[in-house]
Write a structure and sequence with these properties.
By secondary structure, the chain is of the alpha/beta class. It contains 11 helices and 21 strands.
């Protein structure tokens, strides 16, 4: 372990530490952040009545919309002169969320990222290739500083580097650990096939993935195509960035760095806590962040908490991999489904790639669903047109059976939808 003393704290000691840090955070936020002062006053919150972690339910929630309305610096709890780094979320359709870090915040972030990497199996002997966003985004920086803290050799490849160049670097620099989004790792796997690079020429053994949801089938595919062990990670930029939670080598849930975060799971409709072990929306409170504290932040991520002890010896709570988001549920004629469910269905068919796009529209006031699916080029048949039509019909039937959704499936040529992995819209809603 990177920090065995902290990561194996007895539960009672951990909760006492959390409460002490929570008190400090609440008082600092009330004094220094106008949003929290107004929210607490509106909800008649008396901080002296918060005498244990369970009393947190008296506190109001913070939402993504609240953070966007506070653009750029209104959520900062320290003077701007104390902010030494600024990152933002993507903000493709709205104002981005601006996150400020103090020197202490950066030190704590490095600690969290180093713990995550160590739990995954990264050591000072590894060569770590980071194929994530840098620039304004936190993803690449978080893993970068954590890997340096562990003592590994770090290659800041970034997402700006082409797949072909990533492969050259991976081969020539003897990369042992790849850190990227799952979809970009799949692009690299496709590139290896196209370049006919034999996996025996690579030193790759481990992959840490985050930044987007991925299915069990995607995980299996990545492990088979890259011959690696895959590790799931979690860390929204507004909460901290990479380092909030991650799997250990046993891969039975993501260990949450609870000495820095208090987590809850709520019913996203009633906002009440769910029963232990039930799935719901993850809510996070930061208890060490100075520059950008968050109190009961609704992440929109759907997961469940795992309280049983992990055989690795860490005592922190674990979370299951994120299964969906409250804000990407698609409702069509009274039926709801998630894009991840479409991905899972497509994984059961030979001849299709993981890339697809859902287009929602209306005809005569009735919702319609069109799903464009990229074929993999693996279909070899004398009557290719007939084989593709059979595949199309089978996919549509499977979607109707599993999701009770009538969808028009359109098969498109290889490479047509690969750009979706780089951030283009996977769901296009044209409904009025």
């Amino acid at each position: 372990m990177y920090n065995a003393k902290c990561e194996t704290l007895p539960r009672n000691e951990l909760e006492q530490l959390q409460f002490e840090r929570l008190q400090s955070t609440l008082n600092r936020a009330y004094r220094n952040v106008a949003f929290y002062k107004a929210a607490f006053d509106t909800h008649c919150v008396n901080l002296e009545r918060i005498r244990d972690i369970q009393a947190m339910q008296e506190l109001p929630f913070t939402t993504k919309e609240d953070l966007q309305k506070s653009y750029p610096y209104d959520m900062f709890a320290v003077p701007l002169r104390d902010i030494v780094r600024i990152h933002t979320t993507s903000g493709t359709a709205t104002r981005p969320i601006v996150v400020g870090y103090t020197q202490n915040d950066l030190r704590n972030w490095r600690e969290c990222a180093a713990r995550l990497l160590t739990a995954a199996g990264v050591t000072q002997h590894d060569v770590v290739q980071i194929a994530l966003h840098y620039s304004l985004f936190a993803e690449g920086f978080g893993f970068h500083q954590g890997a340096e803290r562990v003592g590994a050799s770090v290659i800041p490849a970034s997402l700006a580097t082409s797949v072909a160049k990533q492969i050259v670097v991976m081969r020539d620099f003897k990369t042992t650990v790849l850190i990227s989004t799952p979809s970009h790792a799949l692009n690299i796997a496709v590139g290896l096939d196209e370049e006919q690079v034999r996996l025996e020429r690579l030193s790759l053994r481990l992959g840490l993935f985050g930044g987007e949801r991925w299915s069990d089938s995607s995980r299996r595919q990545l492990e088979e195509r890259l011959r690696i062990t895959s590790i799931d990670t979690y860390g929204p930029t507004e909460v901290l960035g990479p380092g909030v939670a991650g799997e250990c080598h046993l891969r039975h849930g993501l260990h949450i760095n609870e000495d820095q975060f208090i987590v809850e799971v709520i019913n996203p409709k009633t906002l009440a806590p769910v029963a232990a072990g039930e799935e719901g929306e993850l809510v996070v409170t930061t208890i060490l962040k100075e520059g950008f504290p968050l109190i009961r932040y609704r992440t929109c991520d759907i997961t469940r908490l795992i309280a049983e002890p992990c055989a690795c010896g860490r005592t922190f709570l674990r979370m299951a991999p994120v299964s969906g988001r409250t804000d990407d549920l698609i409702l069509v004629r009274g039926v709801g489904f998630f894009p991840a469910q479409i991905e899972e269905i497509l994984s059961g068919f030979e001849g299709v790639s993981p890339y697809f796009q859902i287009i929602l529209d209306q005809e005569g006031g009735i919702d319609t669903v069109q799903i464009r699916v990229e074929i993999s080029g693996a279909i070899q048949s004398v009557d290719r047109i007939k084989a593709l039509e059979t595949l199309r019909v089978q996919i549509a039937q499977r979607i109707a059976t599993v999701l009770d959704v009538e969808a028009k499936v359109i098969l498109v040529e290889p490479g047509s939808l690969r750009q979706l992995a780089a951030g283009a819209e996977r769901v296009v809603d044209r409904r009025p």
